[in-house]
Amino acid sequence: MTLLEGSIGVEDLVLLEPLEEESMLKNLQLRYENKEIYTYIGNVLVSVNPYQQLPIYGPEFITKYQECTFYELKPHIYALANVAYQSLKFRDRDQCILITGESGAGKTEASKLVMSYVAAVCGKGEQVNSVKEQLLQSNPVLEAFGNAKTIRNNNSSRFGKYMDIEFDFKGSPLGGVITNYLLEKSRVVKQLKGERNFHIFYQLLAGADAQLLAALKLERDTGGYAYLNREVSRVDGMDDASNFKSVQSAMTVIGFSEEEIRWVLEVTALVLKLGNVKLSDEFQANGIPASGISDARGVREIGEMMGLDSKELERALCSRTMATAKEKVVTALNVVQAQYARDALAKNIYSRLFNWIVNRINESIKVGIGEKKKVMGVLDIYGFEILEDNSFEQFVINYCNEKLQQVFIELTLKEEQEEYKREGIPWKKVDYFDNGIICNLIEHNQRGILAMLDEECLRPGVVSDSTFLAKLNQLFSKHSHYESKVTQNAQRQYDHTMGLSCFRICHYAGKVTYNVNSFIDKNNDLLFRDLSQAMWKAKHPLLRSLFPEGDPKQASLKRPPTAGAQFKSSVAILMKNLYSKNPNYIRCIKPNEHQQRGQFSRELVATQARYLGLLENVRVRRAGYAFRQGYKPFLERYRLLSRSTWPRWNGGDREGVEKILGELSACTSEEVTFGKTKIFIKSPKTLFYLEEQRRLRIQQLATLIQKIYRGWRCRTHYQQMRKSQILISSWFRGTMQKKRYGKMKASVLLIQAFVRGWKARKDYRKYFRSGAALTLSSFIYKSLAQKFLLGLKNNLPSTSILDKKWPAAPYKCFTTANQELQRLYHQWKCLPLSFHISVSLPPFPALPPSSMIIASAPTHSQCKKFRDQLSPKQVEVLREKLCASELFKGKKAAYPPSVPVPFRGDYIGLRGNPKLQKLTGREEGPVLMAETVRKVNRGNGKTSSRILLLTKGHVILTDSKKSQAKTVIGLESVAGVSVTSFQDGLFCLHLSEISSVGSKGDFLLVSEHVVELLTKMYRAVLDTTQRQLPITVAEQFSVKFKESNVTVKVTQGPRGNGNGKLSCKKKGSHGLEVTV
């Protein structure tokens, strides 16, 4: 067991020193802040809710705790579950695990972890896995129908649950039985601010498909239902739609048929629709107030869905039949009474539906009769509650916790006494607070508070909460654990916190003040017989089965048992069940009210610690001996403290322990007692002394081990270095000799080779002239070259300029010559076309010298033949293509795609648009280029569509919609053009300042045929003005804008192809960034 070594704080509060509330809270806070949420009190587990997922669960940890004893590892819920399961499996002792705590303390999650651990460690097999799956899948179903969001907890259990899991002799689960306690059915009709109704209502509306909602006559909007809190319809971290699918799947796994699932959802929808039944004031003929249904649609839909007569349901809601032995009297209900009856019906339907679901689950998981079985019970029930306004619910909850505390004390002391008896140690009476007097105050059959409440409910005459309180004041006026305003006045005590309608009980966890208002109504929990009979008459199988008392054949005038009597009976059965089993306790604590991770409120935890009686638990555990352990593990841990037992001990375990403690002065006979199999230590101080001595001894032994290890390591290292040095020297000398021998051998062989060569040359010189080899090689090479050229002559390709075939070189040495011959031949074939084009064009200063050489070459008959085949239009196209090549080849990325595409000139259908033809004028001649361009606004970067017309004298920009000339630019005014090197259509027309248009500034345009447009514009300017148009290719250029200049910077976008959509972005007042 880990005590101080490597632990955070004290892992077992039994060993806490000093034993005070402050030190206990400080220890819990220290462990919680270091994410150690579990702490022991002996074999009791204290769990502090972390409000986050911690990496301490899963198969790896299950395996670890399965293979270890309770105190061998850190405190964990798996350790407690493992002890319970191992005791059940190997000792045949039925177990129960009691989980208590406030709402939001993590009780539901703790019960899930216990069940998941048991499911993981028990047997395997198809049938066993099926049973385990059914037991685990019962949780989401019960959570959906029994849990709700409260102010303190988003998934608060609003009922108590006790599950008996039954196992066979091998420890494999056979089935189980679930018992539920006191469902908070008042939540069905009313919720506090910030809280929700039960989860199933929201899951149904969010997760059901449209077809199912239509069948249930529901709408998806939660705001349309009176029983649902409109302020809180969703919970953070909770997916109602997904949870609804999980609930349906779980019900199928448990064994619900599709028909039964549909019945359950229909009854759930019935509860929602009852809340929307609106009641209005009416008056009878004699003037007595009555009530009626203001909107008959809701009642009619309920009748259609449940097979009810809507008039029968309306009559049952708005009137009441009082039956005696002789006659029946029908009384009309006013609106308040009718609303009470409606709400009572909704609460009863939901409560009975929940009980039916629990019973249906029990039918699926029950064990056959006659099978021998072992039982493990898991109790997940409300913790002790002290609210600002405590009512009947808090009274019965705290009564249940008083009984559980009584069970804990009695079973703990009983277990202690039995252990002392087994070990042969005398039992000493332990002084502790016995809360039996409080339990008797509440549950006594004749003089208990519950008995008085039942008596008051059954008494004829005027009965009220005030008369009930008066009876309590009279009966318990001198009881030491009962207070009220009357008893305080009698004792001349003044307490302003005590109301006139209140009484106070001094519970084991503190004083609780209860308000008696509604005690009588909540204890009666009556449902008018008319409503029961109306529900029984329904044709819906499930709804009819929920109200068997509505059957006229089974009608009884006997009053049903009260809620208090039923709960008292259930608690009595539960206590009897717990007394027959070995208990295991999990005390759950909520660290803060805001469900925030890492926050620890000492005041809140201190209050819960008092409710749970943690300090009382520690005192009971420490009443006898604070620590006990078997001789063998104790000897293994502390045998190093004695020279007699260290390093080896060959005697018995007990003798070894006696030897160790006999040599330690602090371990006196008053502090230590030897049992039959265990050593008992009275005070934690003695244990801490042993731990400190062990720590010091470990340091000494560690130093000794380190000293011996260092010496051994140095000696070993020296021996290894010596052996290595000898080995390296041996290898080095051998290697050096081998290298020396190799060099000598190579030298001898070289000398021999030279001598043999000199002799051979001397012998053969007389037979061959010097230089014969060079002559022979020259002859062979010339022969090969002649063969290559003659073969090429006979295999020349055709003279067509489109034929690019060429014979391959027969030898690699002719590859370069073959490529040069191929180039010359192809150039010779292209002479006619080049000559014809070049002689017809005026001289270009930019033409390379090779073009001028070709232009001056002589004309062949073949050239003339090819030229004569060309039409004037084709010659003109070739001239334009050649001009485009000279202007843009190797400069702009848009040029290569434009080469195979013929220049059309007209891209807008100019012939079919007479308005545009009139703009050009007849004296202008034909239109050279007509297309739609985009004009870039230099102020904001936006673009607008324009039609550009290029004639021999002007560039005309018109509105694409109105066909009116916006701008007419003479070609003599065009000073130059700037274009980018990318594959875009952006270009800028730089205008001279002396022109009328130039005063407005330059034009920034985008064209889809920029190569063709600028080529035609270049030739038109050359023809008109006899000057060459400067075309600048750059990614950054300046554009004049009235009296200022704007720098245009063009960049490629992430697509990088340059033909995407242009994006213009203004950069200050003198910059424009264009992304292409």
Automatic annotation (TrEMBL):
Ranges for region Disordered: 1052-1076
Segments forming domain TH1: 892-1076
One example GO MF annotation: microfilament motor activity
Span of domain Myosin motor: 8-695
Stretches the record annotates as Actin-binding: 571-593
Binding site for ATP: G101, E102, S103, G104, A105, G106, K107, T108
A biological-process GO annotation: actin filament-based movement
Pfam families per UniProt: IQ, Myosin_head, Myosin_TH1
Transmembrane residue ranges: none
One GO CC term, this protein: cytoplasm
UniProt keyword list: Actin-binding, ATP-binding, Calmodulin-binding, Motor protein, Myosin, Nucleotide-binding, Phosphoprotein, Repeat
Matching InterPro entries: IQ_motif_EF-hand-BS, Kinesin_motor_dom_sf, Myosin_head_motor_dom-like, Myosin_TH1, MYSc_Myo1, P-loop_NTPase
Function statement: Involved in directing the movement of organelles along actin filaments.
Family listed: Belongs to the TRAFAC class myosin-kinesin ATPase superfamily. Myosin family.
Record protein name field: Unconventional myosin-Ia
Annotated source species: Myotis brandtii
